[in-house]
Specification:
- The protein is mostly helical and 189 residues long.
- It has two domains: 84 residues, Rna Polymerase Sigma Factor, Chain: A (Orthogonal Bundle); 85 residues, Arc Repressor Mutant, subunit A, CATH 1.10.10.
- It is built from nine helices and no strands.
Length: 189
C-alpha cells in the first residue's frame, strides 16, 4: 500500500487499515515535531495521539486530499499550540526554576564547554523562544528541510518562510547571547 491508496481508503471507507498505514508512515516525524514545539516527550506523545484521533475523525469529511502530512501537521501544530496555551503558567514556572537551578550549578569554574553542555544550552534557548520561531528553526537547521518543504508543511508562502527564519534567527541569537551572559555572571573564578 502507498500513501495515495491509504488516503483513498480513509476518505471513501473510513478504513482503519489505511489510516494505520498513514500513522505508521508519519508517527516518528509527528512525534519529533511535537517534541520540538512542546519540549516534553510525554506531552508530545499525548499531542500526537490526540492529533491522529482528530485526523481520523476528520478525514471522511474531506472531499480530496493529495498528501497526508501537510494537512495532518496543521492539526498537530494547532493541538500543540493549544496545549502550550493551556499550560503557559506551568511552563513559565518550570523555565524560571530551570534557570535558577542552572545558575547555581554554573558556579563551578570551567574554561571549555563540552559539546553536551552546548547542546543543552541550545535547547534551553530554543524552549524560551516563541513556538513559531522554535518550529521553523528546528525544521530548517535540525530537520534540514528546504524552504519549499517548510512552506508546504506550514501552509505559508516561501517568502514568509524566509522572513520568519530571519526573525527567528535574530531572536535565537539574542536569546543565546543573553543566556551566555547569564551563565558568565554566575561563574566565579
Amino acid at each position: 500500500m502507498d500513501e495515495a491508496a491509504a488516503i483513498r481508503l480513509c476518505l471513501k471507507y473510513r478504513d482503519p487499515a489505511g489510516f494505520e498505514f498513514l500513522v505508521n508512515q508519519y508517527k516518528r516525524e509527528a512525534f519529533f515535531h511535537a517534541v520540538t514545539l512542546l519540549g516534553n516527550p510525554e506531552d508530545a506523545a499525548d499531542a500526537c495521539q490526540e492529533s491522529f484521533s482528530r485526523a481520523f475523525s476528520a478525514m471522511p469529511r474531506l472531499s480530496h486530499l493529495d498528501r497526508f502530512y501537510p494537512w495532518f501537521y496543521r492539526i498537530l501544530r494547532n493541538c500543540c499550540l493549544n496545549l502550550l496555551a493551556r499550560r503557559q503558567t506551568a511552563r513559565k514556572y518550570r523555565i524560571e526554576n530551570a534557570h535558577k537551578d542552572h545558575a547555581d550549578v554554573s558556579g563551578c569554574p570551567q574554561t571549555i564547554l563540552e559539546k553536551e553542555e552546548d547542546r543543552k544550552r541550545i535547547w534551553e534557548v530554543l524552549q524560551g523562544l516563541n513556538p513559531e520561531f522554535r518550529e521553523i528553526l528546528v525544521m530548517k537547521y535540525i530537520r534540514d528541510c528546504r524552504y519549499e518543504q517548510i512552506a508546504e508543511v506550514l501552509d505559508i508562502p516561501r517568502g514568509t518562510v524566509m522572513s520568519r527564519l530571519y526573525y527567528a534567527r535574530k531572536a535565537f541569537r539574542d536569546a543565546y547571547t543573553a543566556h551566555g551572559e547569564e551563565r558568565k555572571e554566575g561563574v566565579t573564578i
